[in-house]
Description:
Blueprint: H1 4-36, H2 38-50, H3 60-70, H4 72-75, H5 83-103, H6 110-131, H7 133-138, H8 140-145, H9 154-178, E1 184-186, E2 189-192, E3 195-198, H10 206-223, H11 227-235, H12 237-258, H13 267-271, H14 273-302
Antiparallel strand pairs: 1-2, 2-3
Amino acid sequence: xxxxxxxxxxxxxxxxxxxxxxxVAFCAILLVSAIVSWKTLGALVAYSLHNxxxxxxxxxxxVSAYLLFAERKRIFAAVQPSLAAGTGVILVGAGLYWTAxxxxxxWQGNALSAATLALxxxxxxxxxCSYGLATAQRAVFLLLxxxxxxxxxxSVLAWIVHALQQGSTDVTYLLFKIVGVPVFRQGFVLSVxxxxxxxxxxxxxxxxxxxxxITCLLAAHFYLRTPWKILVFVLLVLPLAVVKxxxxxxTLTLLSIYIDPSFLRGSLHRDGGFxxxxxxxxxxxxxxxALEKSESRRAALKAPQPAGSIEGGGTRS
Length: 317
């Protein structure tokens, strides 16, 4: 006759078996995909390390893995594999990967973007095969977050950089006018007494803008729940990035004019982006706090009232 401890042990084992099998299956899919695509992953790491607009790429899977671990109780509350849906997504990813790898002459331009997108699709398909649609819905943010691993196609990146250049030049010109510094503008070149500066592609602030976008996206995920509030907060990143970059250019220019010309070539110019990144966060903080406070108020209004209370206070007789 079985003891109570044997029954409890068998029950725990049977309860944990499906999720353990799902973890093993998903890890196996990740391992096989990494082995098959090791050249792609190597090219992706190299691209991330040598391109300012892609320095975030190697961090994205680590952040997604952390989110998966931190929210594991909610995400893996119930597991029911969806083999048909997962296999379909994997096949789409495999087809795209084959096209990207064998139809391209090298890892330049959009080929690496397509291959990386294909890998993300394969991983999402593996997640569906292992854990199911309901689990994927609970993990939708971290799965979509993986799309930030995909390098921006050349045409999209060029458009974003140009928009940041244009916006930064406009803001810089306006700020010079506000502080009373005579300025002459010709395209992306601004001339003030003693110096002319060009807001080149390298000065567009693309790296800090992407970092700001990712930071705001994570903050919205953790603290905001209303879709329109999340959208508004994230969309504020582009104008704030432009304003931040304009303040940076004006500050460096004024320091070079009135204190030391080396400010335009010194460490603050090369490595001071973090200071102005923090400035952008400070500008966003009041908006974020207002949105977060409204979320808390909305949650309080939706909370069930105590059984003995009535609107306006007091108790029921």
